[in-house]
Design goal:
The protein is α+β, with helices and mostly antiparallel strands and 439 residues long. The chain contains twelve helices and 23 strands.
Length: 439
């Protein structure tokens, strides 16, 4: 087992702000918590709720999530309890009916799926991730969460100027020295040193400076880290308050939360709350944005072909559009915003509906998880062993009419297959498949 870094121990011991017992708590077992999807069912007992979350619960032990088909159905998301406090922060904000929310460093998707649930098809969520491979994981998790108004892009913060002055809520889960994860991530212990913590603080300052212009006047910055270092937490926000560029948002207090040294936000110390280490604060922007870049005009997007729309359920208040041979759908408001920023590099655009061929259409795999029944497929219901084999990527013999089917487990879709002759082809994406079946 990797020991706690000596310089970290020294700093904690010399800081009277840090509660006694933190170092000991970092050597104990971390709790396991999940956040349940508000519109899907899981098989967990909900007798131990997370106090600051409407759908978060603690588990007695950490199960093998990979081997639960409902995990693959997007029925819940394993997430640190402290991070779930974002829900309470969002509830404190005075937002328009359709807010524009940018989750800046969004992978793997814990905060983004929470935001998607909070929005509940209102507004738009733009989830950004600078790392391309992590952005694909983010896309997978948001796809399985099922909301139509979610988009994923892959950019450095400095490349997002198309959003300047358009964002109502900017969520910055800043890259940090990771001290709050020392209990369960021993690699974080091995990589920690004073120089790295200082580098993280410097980078955080750059990020805030780069993305501050994206916020509307009156918009909100939600800033969080998983570290205890004040240079990476409240000290990053002081200058915005001192320059009168922002004002503090009072956040709800729960037992065990500790206000920071300047009473801007809260610390979650593992020896005081049932969570990993976490810090979060919220500011409201009071200064006007200095416009350096004019947003692009709302570009026309090709309408979806009538012959495809005739096959779909179009009774919901949604808008379909086509780009090249791909058809997508989202809410009317989200499409209006996407039209302004569609030149960004998007990995996910609302829900992918279909791919056009010369004389036919292939349904988009994202329809498997859509909360709205856009394309009505017949169902193949399976039990757990077969569900896992399909999630593993297996194709099987099956007697059924030709066509596309949703595979369901306990009433929830986990995959899509295509029946051909006396067998079906497994369409579950290779990168999403279970690598090994349970023994």
């Amino acid at each position: 087992m990797t020991s706690l870094p000596q310089d970290f121990i020294k700093r904690i011991q010399q800081d009277p702000f840090v509660p006694a017992g933190l170092l000991q708590a970092l050597e104990e077992t971390a709790p396991t918590s999940v956040r349940l999807h508000p519109q899907r069912k899981s098989n967990f007992q909900t007798s131990d709720p997370v106090a600051w979350s409407s759908s978060g619960i603690y588990l007695k032990e950490r199960p093998a999530f990979t081997y639960d088909p409902l995990f693959h159905a997007g029925a819940y998301y394993p997430q640190e309890a402290g991070s779930m406090y974002l829900e309470k922060v969002l509830e404190q904000l005075a937002l328009p009916e359709n807010p524009v929310i940018l989750d800046l460093s969004a992978a793997p998707g814990g905060k983004s799926t929470l935001i998607a649930s909070f929005l509940n098809q209102k507004g738009i969520l733009i989830a950004n991730e600078i790392n391309r491979s992590r952005a694909y994981i983010l896309s997978e998790n948001l796809t399985k969460w099922g909301y139509a108004n979610t988009f994923v892009c892959n950019h450095k913060p400095s490349e997002l100027s198309a959003l300047q002055g358009q964002v109502d809520v900017l969520v910055v889960d800043a890259p940090c020295s990771g001290e709050g994860m020392f209990r369960k991530d021993h690699q974080a212990r091995a990589e920690w040193h004073l120089g790295n913590a200082a580098t993280c603080a410097s980078r955080q300052t750059e990020i805030i400076d780069e993305v501050w212009p994206l916020l509307k006047e009156g918009g909100y910055l939600i800033y969080s880290t998983c570290t205890f270092n004040p240079e990476e937490n409240e000290n990053q926000l002081i200058h915005l308050l001192e320059e009168e560029s922002a004002q503090k948002i009072k956040l709800p207090h729960f037992e065990g939360l500790q206000a920071d040294r300047h009473e801007i936000g809260y610390y979650f110390f593992p020896n005081q709350v049932k969570s990993e280490g976490f810090y979060i604060a919220a500011l409201q922007k009071t200064s006007r944005a200095h416009t350096k870049h004019k947003p692009s005009k709302n570009s026309e997007l090709g309408a979806a072909p009538k012959e495809l729309l005739a096959m779909l359920n179009t009774t919901h208040d949604l808008q379909f559009w086509q780009e090249a041979d791909q058809v997508y759908v989202t809410t009317p408001f989200a499409r209006s915003i996407y039209g302004l920023i569609k030149d960004l590099k998007f990995l996910k655009k609302g829900i992918h509906v279909a791919t056009a061929h010369k004389k036919s259409w292939t349904p988009g795999y994202e329809l498997t998880y859509s909360l709205l029944p856009i394309w009505n497929f017949p169902i193949k219901a399976v039990e757990a062993p077969e569900a896992l084999r399909i999630l593993h990527g297996e194709s099987q013999q099956w007697e059924a009419p030709a066509g596309f089917y949703l595979v369901t487990f306990e009433g929830q879709a986990i995959a899509m297959i295509k029946q051909i002759g006396q067998r079906f082809n497994n369409l579950h994406p290779t990168e999403w498949r279970i690598r090994h079946l349970p023994k």
